[in-house]
Amino acid sequence: MKVSEVLNKEEIAYFSRKSDWRGLGVILNTWASILILFFIVSVWTNAITIIALLLLLPGRMLALAVISHDCGHKVLFKSEKLNFIVGQYFSANLVFTDLTDYATSHRQHHKLAGTDQDPDLPNYQHYPVEKSSFKRKIIRDITGQTGYKLLHYVIRSALQYRHKEQRQFAWPFVKELFIQGVFALFVSLAFTPTLYLIWLGTFFTSYMIIVRLRQLAEHASVPNLYDPDPRQNTRTVIARWWEKLILAPNNVNFHVEHHFMASVPCYRLAEFHQHLQDKGVYKNTVITKGYPRLLKQLITP
User: Crossing angle of helices 206-219/131-142, nearest 10°?
Assistant: First the structure.
């Protein structure tokens, strides 16, 4: 399925339009929700607010990851410079990612999706899996084993900066740790150091589950992982309001639409989905409704 077979030039231009104001709205909404959560817990510290923070914080982290994703595609803002600054220092580095490295790898994923050369294939090619296997993966995530491997890799890579010949490789990891330090200082001064420790602990535990589910929602157990048609190798999940808070912020659930036309910013994906639906593009496509139904598709009976 080619874009030109479905959309005319006017439609392509309309859905590819970038808006600095709407991009700014996405970043402000995401950061406002994070700071409001911190404020509520710091002022009214009790079991209810802490549980709410632990439940909602992973989704806010994923929202930052989605912002860096769109900035990597250079579609959140009109300005390439703004895409880089926001994508690197106000989103990607906060989730231990380097925007440039991520964008380079992600472009390869788009280019090779639907083939056995897709660099992300190991993340989802063996699904569906048995319930016991899926359970082991979730336990590794929630107990911090997955997160520990990531943290160990980031720190070990950053330490390579001591060696002159490794500095180009190490520099992105040094920046990630520096931005984490700046964020830790800000949270400590504005609220309390405990909140940054909760942020860090959440990232290396429950957020690992959210990231796993995001990857699996997008490409695992799809009709045909080796078909170049995004309706076959990719999945869109229709998310409920509460799922959008935790599992699908910033329209990340509309992934078929994103693979069909990566120039569409996240703030236009819902409208783009409806437009494709109205044109009959999904006539023979199964659209997953809700993440509980997704889980059934990921696990063998």
Answer: 140
Q: What is the pLDDT of residue 206?
A: 97
* Residue 262 near residue 284 (C-beta atoms within 8 A): no
Distances (CA, A) of 154 to 71, 150, 160, 246: 22, 6, 10, 25
What pLDDT, in 10s, does the model give residues 256-276? 999 999 999 999 999 999 999
Taking a C-beta distance cutoff of 8 angstroms, is the pair 177, 238 a contact? no
What pTM does this model have? 0.95
Nearest to 234 by CA among 207, 269, 275: 269
Contact by Cβ (8 Å): 187, 196: yes
- pLDDT for position 86: 97
Cis peptide before 128 (omega within 30 of 0): yes
Distance of CA 34 to the CA centre of its chain: 16
Whether the Cβ atoms of residue 30 and residue 60 lie closer than 8 Å to each other: yes
First to last CA, the chain: 32
Domain ranges of the chain: 3-298
- 8-state DSSP, 287: P
Residue 192 vs residues 46, 195, 258: alpha-carbon distances, Å: 15, 6, 39
Amino acid at 68: S
Q: Are 263 and 75 in contact (CB under 8 A)?
A: yes
Q: What mean pLDDT is reported for the chain?
A: 96
